[in-house]
Amino acid sequence: xxxxxxxxxxxxxxxxxxxxxxxxxxxxxxxxxxxxxxxxxxxxxxxxxxxxxxxxxxxxxxxxxxxxxxxxxxxxxxxxxxxxxxxxxxxxxxxxxxxxxxxxxxxxxxxx
Amino acid sequence: xxxxxxxxxxxxxxxxxxxxxxxxxxxxxxxxxxxxxxxxxxxxxxxxxxxxxxxxxxxxxxxxxxxxxxxxxxxxxxxxxxxxxxxxxxxxxxxxxxxxxxxxxxxxxxxxxx
Lengths: 112, 114
What we know:
The structure holds two protein chains of two kinds.
Chain A: E1 4-5, E2 10-14, E3 19-25, E4 32-38, E5 45-51, E6 56-59, E7 62-67, E8 72-77, E9 86-93, E10 100-102, E11 106-111
Parallel strand pairs in A: 2-11
Antiparallel strand pairs in A: 1-3, 3-8, 4-5, 4-9, 6-7, 7-8, 9-10, 9-11
Chain B: E1 5-7, E2 10-13, E3 19-24, E4 31-37, E5 44-50, E6 53-56, E7 65-68, E8 75-79, E9 88-95, E10 104-105, E11 109-113
Parallel strand pairs in B: 2-11
Antiparallel strand pairs in B: 1-3, 3-8, 4-5, 4-9, 5-6, 7-8, 9-10, 9-11
C-alpha cells in the first residue's frame, strides 16, 4: 500500500514557466512533509518542507502548498530553470516518529 | 559543514558474496538512517538509529542484512550473502534528534549483484 503517491512520473516545462509537482498521501497521521531533489548519481538534496500547521511555505523560487483536507501537497517552481531538471521526491512523516515515507518521484525536465 | 559521507560509491559483486557499506553522518546528528532505493522508486527505510541504538529495523531483512553503529557515529550496513535482487542504491541519511528536523542524505552506494 503506497502511502505517499506521486502520480506523474514525468513532467516537461519550458524555461521561465511554472513547474507544478503533485503529491498525495493517505495517512492522516502525517504532519510533516518534505521535498527533495535528486540529480543522477547523487543522493537526494533537501529542498523545502512544510508542517501541517501551515498551508504554504515559500523559499525563493520554491513554494510548497499543503491541502490537509485533500491530503495533497504540491511544489511550485517559478520561474523554472534548466538546472531544475531532476527527479523530485516528496516525503511524509509524523512528528515524533522521525520516519519518512517517500513517493516514487517525478522527473522534471525544463526545456531551454 | 561536511555532508554525509558514504563509501564505496560503487560496488559490483557476484551473488552469494558478502558486501559492506560505510556511512559517516554529519557531525552532531544523532539520528542515522539507511535506505534502499530501487530503480524508479523512492527511498525505502531499512533501519534507523538513535545514537547507537537501532530503534526501527522492522524493514531490515534480518536473514541476510545486518547493521551496526557501535559508537553512535559512523555506521556499517552489511549483506551476506548478496542476492540478485539486492542490486540497488543504498543511501545513508542523518538528522539532528528533535521534532521536525530535516534529514540529509549522502551520495549513496550503487550496488550491482551479478
